[in-house]
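Please describe what follows:
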Amino acid sequence: MKTQIYENIQAFWNRKDKTINGVTQEFAEANPSWEEDRGNEGCWNCSDCSDCYDCSRCTDCTDCSRCTDCTDCSDCTYCTDCSGCSHCYGCSHCYGCSRCSHCYGCSRCSHCYGCSRCSHCYGCSRCSRCSGLAAQKLEKIIPVIPQIHNTVREAVEATPEALNMRDWHTCETTHCRAGWVVFLAGDEGRELESKTSTEFAAKQIYKASSTIKVSPTRFYETKEKAMADIIRCAEEESALISNQ
């Protein structure tokens, strides 16, 4: 996505095209590759990040969404001041976390999942290697969908209305991409969704079912973009199966 120089962050916020990335003149002078397209969208002063969405001052992030001051992150969403994180969601002021969800400050944490190397946590709930027990129980209910990408493709191509990217679930035969993943996982998928969120459940089911990576940012795309990526993943999955 295109990157432009703005006088300040207020000017960046006031831009008409919200998909354009922005940098300050000082950042551009300090980073000669500031115009390089890394697949980012709506990011501000990000360095060496890729496939990020609405990030601010992030470094070396991958597949992030709405992050701030992150470093070496991967698959993050709604993070703030993170460092060394992986597969985070809803984090704030984290350090050295892995597979975290709904964390806050590595202090006064709640509703965490699969954390490791956390420090100064307080009031954690469902944390692995903190309280441990509930997170391990949650991990056991993550279902696997055989040939998930082709299964999702078959479902969304069943009718013209089968894929609706405006809502997680519209009805039994109409869902968004993440909604279909949860629905196709049956009772275990719905249980995981009820204990966490649709986005988190779909992400974990994708990860457990296939090595073909699907960023959670894909759950918020237009119908056309979502369908194109679903088909791409299905074709890649079919190619992997045929080569086995």
